[in-house]
Amino acid sequence: MTGSRIDRVLGCHAADLAAVEAIVTRAGTSFAKGMHILSRERRYGMFAIYAFCREVDDIADGDTKVENPVEELEAWRARVAHIFQNETQNALDRVLAAAIQEFDLQQKDFDAVIDGMLMDVPDPIIAPDEAALDLYCDRVASAVGRLSVRVFGETSEEADQVAHHLGRALQMTNILRDIKEDADRGRLYLPKELLTRFKVPADPQEALYAPGLDGLARVLAKRTHDHYRLAWAAMKKCGKKPMRPAAMMAASYQPILHALEKRGWTQPEKPVRVNKALRLARSLIVGFR
Known about the structure:
Blueprint: H1 4-7, H2 14-26, H3 31-34, H4 40-61, H5 69-84, H6 91-103, H7 107-118, H8 130-152, H9 157-177, H10 179-184, H11 192-197, H12 204-207, H13 213-235, H14 240-263, H15 276-283
């Protein structure tokens, strides 16, 4: 992470770039590896966005121990405003400021992510209505997508449609996968309209083994497939190279949804097994459907 070759990325110093990449690495996800298909400038732009999301998500989830998470998230909103004025205080701020300038990132999308986190604190989300769930998905997922497609190199309306639909598809896949984990955190992201329709209790723990949970989840899975389909359709109208990271994310996540449907939701604690070779092959696709 040292040397003049790295120093020139986004005009940032090697130490700042290393600090931001370390946040990504500590998260322990495959995100960093997947972003290596990007140029160095775009890769570190994505690292900065991911690091921002990681920091605010950890506050909302309680993984970063703070006395008042609402105040901390609002402090991040003020911090973002300062970053957009090129007033920075640490490595993440400086790399974010460089990415904002290089890729014309929008402050409203960073604010939307923070607003999404605030929906889950201080009280966790439990049985939101359909509109609130869609707004939550837009803020915590599609807003990140809108930032990402600009770093990838697409600023078209079609690219924003990719962000809209793929963000919702990925977030709903996570929700359908993590029902048990979320219940253990006192959360239930399933919409109250479907809970009522399928006679599933709105209590997170009681919902886990309700007879109607499987039917409810399959309705949401179908809607999620629709979002994947619309995301692929929008990708076809964009540049193939800029959209390759988005295509990889879609191709990597769709097998999870298929595996969930195969497993069902009568035992939501049962691990979902996805063939790793299949996921890798799908995530390496170059063309679009």
